[in-house]
Design goal:
binds adenosine-5'-triphosphate; binds magnesium ion; alpha/beta; 37% helix; Rossmann fold; Alpha-Beta Plaits
């Protein structure tokens, strides 16, 4: 099966800023593909080119087998997009936000009404059916934006930070729905700053920084390749004895405030020995996560 998105040397420039810098990737049919990266990395910019709302500066970009420069209208008709920013219509209530959006796709009125009710049910918003947007909570708005993205029964669904600001229940609801959409055979592009979410949902992902990809792959593979299977954490409140000792073993040690991270294939043995030598200092072994991959690759300092 042909990939749903094909990008080669894709570039987006805003005056003297290169927001997306020669990225190449394929997104396959039926997969959940994640774009991760610090604030300003270029995730939304990349996604907005796929959505055909931001013109490509250079490179090749095909979506659903069509060139974004040549057939943007046909592409848009088959996309469902939940943008990062809330752009619900404040003049309408919940159900009207869905039915009015359906008009853009030329969906007949009766069908749009039926579909809108189904989607409210799907996102557990039926009770809020007649509420004006300003009276929704932040999490309800997010859920409505995701519901709206599905109104045209899209083949490719783009979710730009769908769970930012949601409570745990709402996040889990969105995860469950995203998995359900995948089971239906749809392709999903996801951005998120929650590494546990990306680890659980994404079949493949990229981590980008300053417009470029740092890595690409399956979450488990990336964790194994970049970090290993475990991480040793040490809490060192005063002094740097532990840090000096661990570095003297030739280990890669990172410090973040009073916490040390040791990334090593031998971290279990190292921890045992460390516990024997320094029983007074707290240390623990835990499984490596995608968050470790992210922080190792992008560093622990703020990016802006
Ligand atoms: N319309 C625009 N005009 C000029 N610069 C822009 C525009 N949109 C985005 N940028 C810049 O492009 C860069 C990438 O922005 P983008 O929104 O793609 O980041 P992001 O990875 O989605 O970040 P976040 O995690 O904060 O959403 C940033 O430096 C941003 O300031
Ligand atoms: Mg963004």
């Amino acid at each position: 099966m042909a990939p749903v998105v094909v990008a080669r040397d894709l570039v987006k420039r805003y005056e003297d800023l290169t927001a997306v810098d020669r990225i190449s990737f394929d997104i396959n049919q039926g997969e959940i593909f994640g774009f991760l990266g610090p604030n300003g990395a270029g995730k939304s910019t990349a996604i907005r080119m796929i959505q055909c709302v931001s013109p490509v500066t250079s490179g090749k970009l095909e979506v659903l087998g069509m060139d974004v420069r040549e057939r943007p209208r046909e592409i848009k008709a088959r996309l469902g997009v939940a943008p990062q920013d809330n752009n619900l219509d404040p003049d309408f209530n919940v159900i009207q936000n869905l039915t009015s959006y359906a008009r853009y796709f030329g969906i007949p009125k009766a069908q749009a009404a039926r579909r809108a009710e189904e989607l409210l049910e799907f996102m557990q918003l039926s009770e809020k059916r007649d509420v004006m947007i300003e009276n929704l909570s932040g999490g309800m708005k997010r859920r409505l934006i995701v519901a709206r993205a599905l109104i045209n029964d899209p083949d490719l669904i783009i979710l730009d930070e769908p769970t930012t600001g949601l409570d745990p229940q709402a996040r889990h609801l969105i995860w469950e729905r995203v998995r359900q959409l995948k089971r239906e055979g749809r392709t999903i592009i996801l951005t998120t700053h929650y590494m546990d979410e990306a680890e659980q949902l994404c079949d493949r992902l990229v981590i980008m920084e300053r417009g470029k990809f740092l890595v690409e792959g399956e979450p488990k593979r990336l964790i194994a390749d970049v970090v290993g299977d475990c991480v040793m954490e040490v809490i060192e409140t005063d002094g740097d004895e532990a840090e000096r000792y661990l570095r003297s073993l030739g280990q890669q040690v990172e410090r973040s405030a009073d916490r040390l991270y040791v990334y090593s294939k031998d971290c279990r043995t190292i921890n045992q020995e460390f516990r024997r030598l320094h029983p007074e200092i707290y240390s623990v072994i835990r499984p490596a996560t995608l968050e470790d991959v992210f922080l190792r690759l992008t560093g622990r300092r703020l990016k802006e």
